């Protein structure tokens, strides 16, 4: 049954993460380099404190442009990241993860275990899980 397939079985575990004090332009460079739409932001203990998305970066740039601020330093990502983050537990089944993707319209979701970030799962990961399940029948 597809509900037996868990987020931890398909999540990415080799993550690029940011700290809240990361410069906005360094974060934008990393987003482009790794071709991802969002990165988790963690504290010194590995706790998830936010997520920085392409949309957050665009909002930051537009805000700075609107206020005619100097673009040399973008400021810290803590000023722009989303702090209300939808997450999934590591043992959530793929159906529950799919429900969140559909309801929230996210491209990827942080996966947590005991309050700590352990991975990220994308819509593509869920589709891969479904495809693997269909093949293995």
Automatic annotation (TrEMBL):
Pfam families for the chain: CBS
Name of the protein this chain belongs to: CBS domain-containing protein
Ranges of residues in domain CBS: 11-69, 81-137
Matching SUPFAM superfamilies: CBS-domain pair (SSF54631)
Origin superkingdom: Bacteria
PROSITE patterns: CBS
UniProt-listed InterPro entries: CBS_bac (IPR044729), CBS_dom (IPR000644), CBS_dom_sf (IPR046342), Diverse_CBS-Domain (IPR051257)
Record key words, sorted: CBS domain
Gene3D superfamilies from the UniProt entry: CBS-domain
